[in-house]
């Protein structure tokens, strides 16, 4: 069955305002690739009702991919993934005490049954989450596929043959 074109939106969520300095890089990538997105603060432990409502209504709100950034004992991506079958990409936020290793392990080490795609800790992860989300959308949207391929071609061309 062909996916309806309107199902092309990415939701970027994060556990705290403090995560935005990292998650803004995901927004930047989606803007460049002209992927529609919405951004929200949704915390699994501080606003559990908001998280539940967000995840349960994501499909009817035409969300096709969820990017969830969280730090510390980062259960947000896994909790959202448990509430919806929309693909969830988790971005481990760099935590102060353990430098994000705690976030990475709690997102990546999901027990079998509920998968969460996991990217690198911090800015690189947020950028790759945007690219990953765009590549999922590109499966059913030729324009986004074109934008993504152009972006990659540009990246390839920007690599010099010799160091200065
Ligand atoms: C998590 O706790 C958030 O994802 C954030 O990374 C971490 C710390 O939050 P704040 O204390 O900075 O609000 O919920």
Write the layout of secondary structure elements.
Elements: E1 9-14, H1 20-32, E2 37-41, H2 48-57, E3 63-71, H3 76-83, E4 88-93, H4 101-108, E5 117-118, H5 123-138, H6 142-157
Parallel strand pairs: 1-2, 1-3, 3-4, 4-5
Bound molecules: 5-O-phosphono-beta-D-ribofuranose (RP5).
What can you tell me about this protein's structure?
This protein is an alpha/beta fold and 164 residues long. Helix content is 43%, strand content 17%. It has a 5-stranded parallel sheet, sandwiched between helices. The longest helix is centred in the C-terminal third of the chain and has 16 residues, at 123-138. The protein is globular, with a radius of gyration of 16 Å. The N and C termini lie far apart (52 Å). Bound molecules: 5-O-phosphono-beta-D-ribofuranose. 5-O-phosphono-beta-D-ribofuranose binds at residues 14-16, 18-19, 43, 70-72, 93.
Strand content: 15-25%
Number of strands: 5
Hetero groups? 5-O-phosphono-beta-D-ribofuranose
Order of SSEs: EHEHEHEHEHH
Distance between the termini: 52 Å
Low-confidence stretches: none
Please identify the structural class as seen in this structure: alpha/beta
How would you describe the shape?
Answer: globular
Radius of gyration: 16 Å
> Mean pLDDT, as a whole number?
96
Number of helices: 6
Strand order of the largest sheet: 2-1-3-4-5
What does the largest sheet look like? 5 strands, parallel
Tell me the helix content.
40-55%
Provide a concise account of the structure shown:
The protein has 6 helices and 5 strands, in the order E-H-E-H-E-H-E-H-E-H-H. By secondary structure, it is an alpha/beta fold.
């Amino acid at each position: 069955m062909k996916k309806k074109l309107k199902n092309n939106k990415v939701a970027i969520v994060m556990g705290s305002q403090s995560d935005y300095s990292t998650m803004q890089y995901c927004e930047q990538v989606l803007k460049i690739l002209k992927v529609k997105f919405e951004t929200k603060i949704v915390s699994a432990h501080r606003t559990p009702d908001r998280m539940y409502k967000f995840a349960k209504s994501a499909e009817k709100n035409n969300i096709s991919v969820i990017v969830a950034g969280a730090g510390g004992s980062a259960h947000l991506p896994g909790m959202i993934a448990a509430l919806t079958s929309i693909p969830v990409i988790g971005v481990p936020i760099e935590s102060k005490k353990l430098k994000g290793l705690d976030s990475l392990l709690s997102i990546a080490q999901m027990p079998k049954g509920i998968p969460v795609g996991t990217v690198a800790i911090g800015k690189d992860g947020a950028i790759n989450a945007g690219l990953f989300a765009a590549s999922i959308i590109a499966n059913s949207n030729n324009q986004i596929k074109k934008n993504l391929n152009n972006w990659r071609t540009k990246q390839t061309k920007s690599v010099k043959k010799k160091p200065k």
